[in-house]
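Figure S4 source data
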Amino acid sequence: MTTPRIPPRPVDDWTDEVDEALSVLRAQAPGTQAAAPSGPATRPRSHILGIYAWHPDLIRGWMPFSNHLRHSTLSDRVREIAIIRTTWLGFGEYEWAQHVRMSRAGGLLTDAEIDALGEGPDAAEWSDADAAAVRAVDEMCTVKNVSDETWLALDKQFSREQLIDFVFTVGTYDMHCTAFNTLGLELEPGMTAFPAGHRRGR
């Protein structure tokens, strides 16, 4: 694939319906109020939102669930471990780059931990609890299940709500990898690409 199959919708082409649908992002974020952008100058120029902008009904259905995952029962650190490892395995470069940037900016993960997420659960950087979370991601993304041994290790550190949120976070971002690789989502200027050795032909 040399060009996106569905490019981001130009912000000048967004309709009031798109603006209203994307207001869900602000309505669902803690401590914020919904307010539609006042015009193209205030609309987010994110490539991923630009793809969503072609389909307001999908935005309305999808974004409340997406926002739940962003503010779920998982700690921010565990959520980012799950997302970065999942998107690494699924070659979801855009989401990987976005969450690496967020994790660094928020102090959630060290550079050594981010590098270890490219190595896997046996990296020396991990505690036993972290290794279990990374191993669970690997199992979900490869065999679409989690072994009893790995589940027991998760069960020791997470509540039932957290276990459910963990599974749905990994499953969702695995799906993102498939969807956005198929649609041809491209990095924005300034986003960090995968290392040169981690590439998959399209």
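Figure S5 source data
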Amino acid sequence: MTSEVVQAHPDTSFKELARLLTSHRISGLPVVDDDDKVMGVVSQTDLTRRQAARGRAASGRDRVLRALRRIARAHPTAPPPLTAGRLMSTPAVTVHPEHRVVDVARIMERRHIDRLPVVDEEDRLIGITTRRDLLRVFLRTDEEIREEVAGAVRSRGSACDADTCTIDVREGIVTIEGVAGPQTDTTALVRAAWRVDGVVGVVNRLTADRRHASSVPPSGA
């Protein structure tokens, strides 16, 4: 996530929007109100689509437009300005900081968008995440991933500890190997490993510890 966000307000003009997108080399930007709550998003596509629509209308209605211009000269009225409030796509698709990378990637693919505003619990803008940000996650080192996976496993209070289990990471693929105690929920451990950013696969090689399995005493004993 990038915390320094280029943003616009509903009254930001078409020309200023074009300048912001061009100068910052971005494909879109959020539109926020006075409380920094996200109202919508303006993209390069929104701007170019509007201009293209104007061109199509002009080519097909020249005769009508000429008549309208004559009327306008007699009763001049200024056309409403093109602003972010009129151009933006709404409602905005947003995510929260706790969203998993894989979930954000799915939203981007489903919605065919490259940037997502990140908002807090009150829907105030706190950052923006892009496809490039998501790719950076997969540049994490195997050691960084291993440490976070180990912490996630320990946080579940399982009986799978350093003495009984080993965690290895190679090229983002996590392998959990060892003997799991009778109280260990191996499915939950695998899920916890998958939730770590940068993980591309999880191999479960845990085996059950039979030493502590309770035996049923024979009848009459």
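The chain has eight helices and seven strands. The mean pLDDT is 82.
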